[in-house]
Amino acid sequence: MKLVSKPAGGGKNEGNGALNKQPILIVGAGLSGAVIGRALAEAGHEVTILDERPHAAGNCHTERDAETDVMVHVYGPHIFHTDDAGVWEYVNRFTTFKPYMNRVKSTAQGQVFSLPVNLHTINQFFGSTLRPDEARALITGKADKTLTDPQNFEEQALSMIGRELYEAFFKGYTQKQWGCEPTDLPASILKRLPLRFNYDDNYFFHKYQGMPENGYTPMVEAILDHPGITLRLNTRFERADAAGFGHVFYSGPLDGWYDCDLGRLGYRTLDFERFIAEGDYQGCAVMNYPGLDVPFTRITEHKHFSPWESHHGSVLYREFSRACEPGDIPYYPIRLAAEQELLTAYVARAQAESGVTFVGRLGTYRYLDMDVTIREAMTAAEMFLTATASNKPMPAFAVNPT
After folding, report:
1. Among 193, 186, 196, which residue's Cα sits nearest to residue 150?
2. Residues of the chain with pLDDT under 70
3. Sequence-separated (6 or more) residues with CB below 8 Å from residue 193
4. How much is the pLDDT for 22?
């Protein structure tokens, strides 16, 4: 990998002797851009990657805190979990993953509970000592069976766990996270609500779970470490930069490609209130605060994301969710009715383009876990190589975002 700071420019790929090798421009040095860039560079393409930030890895960027030496997830915590053996094998090519299980706690109604809702949560919340079959019968009795076809987030929750647990752990948190009433959100957001009738408090179900030993940024930098890749940081992409390149992979905001001339797609963004503590501040990595009496959604204590390390000091973030404004970092696509209509218009426009493929969370306007992002990037690279070999056009989307 060559790391340069000069403006980007295309050119012919010389020296590989293959007629179908094209100079490739990739916008964004996050997971999507890095994985696509590596695959294409290994196939003999000359790849230039631009990123407007001063670092690689996008929102999963990690760095050592100068004061405490704690590994900090700068844009909020990222926990790697997957059932995709191919993706797990891929990331382990570039770093060592250490075992990590996400065990979330929630401060609600004057107590601390375990999430996801499990047998311990149920017994503690209802002041009971139920066995699994008894707890299942209790929740079944509290679930609203009149909601046979839930139409929104609230109805979905009530149909699954009843009003008491919903209002204690989900209603207020959802209002703060999304800035709207749960009745305005689609039921699909809660389709996979974890609910367990045993004492398993591992937040995820996936077979492979862990954290990169030295953080995500060195992992992404290792993916980018190929002689066919030129990385240009602190470089804002302009459409004119695409001139001279055979193809562009764009992981920026889909509406941003068109300067938002049809309107802005809606996102939620996060503000972080960072603070330092001595010792262990909260005893866990993630503490949710679902009550509306607390303005933030959660507190994350970052040294707990690297439990194999020992630090006396501690770095914590209070997270505040709000509507994303121009200039903010977009985190969560809203995808409500107005956004879906606008998304459809941008997708139709993009599909009429040639020479550009939109990838990743921003390029496809979808919330994606890291493993899905990597898998889709691998797929996009494979599609491009196949299309190039057969002299066929590469589509605007490897995965249809609508």
Report:
1. 186
2. 5-20, 192
3. 116, 117, 156, 157, 160, 161
4. 85
Q: Which long-range contacts (CB under 8 A, 24 or more apart) does 241-244 make?
A: 241/7, 241/8, 241/9, 241/25, 241/50, 242/10, 242/25, 242/355, 242/356, 243/10, 244/9, 244/10, 244/11, 244/23
CB atoms within 10 A of CB 66: 7
Helix (H) or strand (E) holding 248, with range, is strand 247-250
Check residue 157 and give left, alpha or beta (phi > 0: left; psi -120 to 50: alpha).
Answer: alpha
pLDDT by residue (tens digit) across 253-270? 999 999 999 999 999 999
DSSP string, 9-67: ------SS--TT--EEEEE--SHHHHHHHHHHHHTT-EEEEE-SSSSSSGGG-EEE-TT
Predicted pLDDT at 162: 95
SS3 sequence, 287-305? EECCCCCCCCCEEEEHHHH
Please give the structure tokens belonging to residue 135: 């707890």
Q: Give the pLDDT score at 5.
A: 53
Residues forming the active site? 192, 196, 268, 298, 319, 367, 369
Model pLDDT, residue 2: 80
Contact residues for 125 (Cβ-Cβ < 8 A; gap 6+): 113, 164, 165, 168
Instruction: Report pLDDT for 63.
Output: 98
User: How many Cβ atoms sit within 10 Å of the Cβ of residue 75?
Assistant: 18
CB 386 within 8 A of CB 398: no
